[in-house]
Amino acid sequence: MAHGEESPIQPKWVGDHLDRVESARFLTTYLNGIYHEENRDAYAGHFVLNLNARWGQGKSFLIEKWVEDLTQAKYPVVLFDAWKNDFSKDPLVGFIAELEKALNPWLDYVAPAQALMENVMGTAKKLIGIGTRLFAGPIAGEIFERITGLDGIDGSIADQAGKLADRALSQHRETRRLIEEFKTNLSALIETIEQQQKGDPECDVQLPLYIFVDELDRCRPTYALELLENIKHLFGVRGVFFIVATNKEQLCHSIGAVYGSGFDSSSYLGRFFDQEYTLPEPNNRQYAKFLFDKYRIVDEERFVTPFHNDEKHSPHLQATFAAFSDAFKLSLRDQGQTIHRLKAILSVSANEIVYFDYLVFLLMLKKKSEPLLDQISSQTRFDPNQFREAVSKIFNLHMPVKVPLVSQWGQVLRESDQSIYELVDTYLLKLNQAKLDFTRGFHSDNDEQFGTEFALLREAQHTSSRIELFSFTEYPNLVNQVGHLS
């Protein structure tokens, strides 16, 4: 694709609930523009971008789809999963192996580049064969200064130290030479592809060369830093563009834990990146769709929810989850943990009706206030008014939701505006009655007074004989149990 032509990224991606395709389209246009920029003084035709987002916000999904689209558009692409290669002491070993595997198929399109690729790999193997880390990290210089600054050592030790120093200097010079050789060979490879592209109309290989590094923040801090050092020193070649995906906050924390609280991890990481792009945070409705797809919470007849629909429950379950997340002002991280715990409860209650809105409320309440959850789970009655007042400090009682009014035969009569807390209060009142009567709940013949939820329950019981009653009075204890999962 020449600069200015249609984006190689598809307009839409299947399963892209967080709308990450928009970021990929923007960044591809931006990075291709840098590559095709005539005045390359700023970036010299190469670039390292930090793709930053917290865990669980779709970085890996974005990279996977982005790689697919670029490959389809005939860009040479390398995808390196740093976490899968973290077992190696030397990051360069796994990285070079992945580079060779990814680029070899493209050589069929550009025959003159085959010999140059052999040169690139030959130099890379020599670098690996040195048998030591190319770059020792941020504290190596300090350690060397301390050792060479020691006084009072005898002549034999000084003589041995001198020989070691000579050997180290010789190895350093050889390493520098091989680094320059590697960069020269890689640059020649890129230039050959570029010349072939310009001179042969049938050559549809595109540039730049995109190299994606994913899961770096999950790696050992020393491994992550050595890999970044390799990228900086070996691949600063025109036409090579890196996208390094990280949770930068977490990576900075890990590095700081290794090198000490006084070490400026953020500034040190910044020297490896030309720019940082932080993925836009999704809204709660988008994130609910993402989480339900990730954890495969799908349409099931056993769910009871006020967002009722005869054909599909899943979108309404997502709407319920998002509404409670809004009301609790729950962070995306806490929402992710909540859905993980919800999935655990669904697993242990595989054959029972699930009162979805009440269960989600309890799970989120545990995230915000365990003492309030303990009031519900205690064996004694609690004061609903006092509880409501306490909950109002962390939960928007008056957030409106649309709730269907259902007849006793399960027919939806009309929709009614209710506050989200009214739905929960229905269960709390029934729970208080159950505590007083020492029953499992739902044994009263006067369930109509408790509203829509119980009409929906009757419908579910009538339409599905395989479903057994799973008492909602057990929910607080279940929520406490899954709360031990992290």
Model description:
The protein has 486 residues and is of the alpha/beta class. It folds into 2 domains: 21-278, no CATH class; 284-482, no CATH class. Helix content is 53%, strand content 10%. The chain has 18 helices and 9 strands. It has helices at residues 21-36, 59-72, 91-103, 113-129, 140-148, 155-199, 221-234, 248-259, 265-270, 284-294, 314-328, 332-348, 356-368, 370-377, 384-391, 420-437, 452-463, 475-482, and strands at 47-52, 77-81, 209-214, 240-246, 275-278, 303-304, 354-355, 400-406, 412-419. A 5-stranded parallel β-sheet has the order 2-3-4-1-5. Helix 4 (113-129) packs antiparallel against helix 6 (155-199), helix 11 runs parallel beside helix 13 and helix 13 (356-368) packs across helix 18 (475-482). The two termini are 46 Å apart.
Could you provide a short overview of the structure?
Helices cover about 55% and strands about 10% of the residues.
Keywords:
486 residues; alpha/beta; 2 domains; five-stranded parallel beta sheet
Count of the domains: 2
Specify the helix fraction band. 40-55%
Number of strands: 9
Spatial strand sequence of the major β-sheet: 2-3-4-1-5
Strand content: 5-15%
Structural class comes to alpha/beta
Shape: elongated
How far from one another are the termini?
Answer: 46 Å
> SSE order, as H and E?
HEHEHHHHEHEHHEHEHHEHHHEEHHH
The parts where pLDDT drops under 50 for at least 5 residues are 139-148, 307-313, 438-470
Tally the helices: what do you get? 18
- Average predicted local confidence, pLDDT: 80
Query: Can you summarize the main beta sheet?
Result: 5 strands, parallel
What is the gyration radius calculated from CA atoms? 30 Å
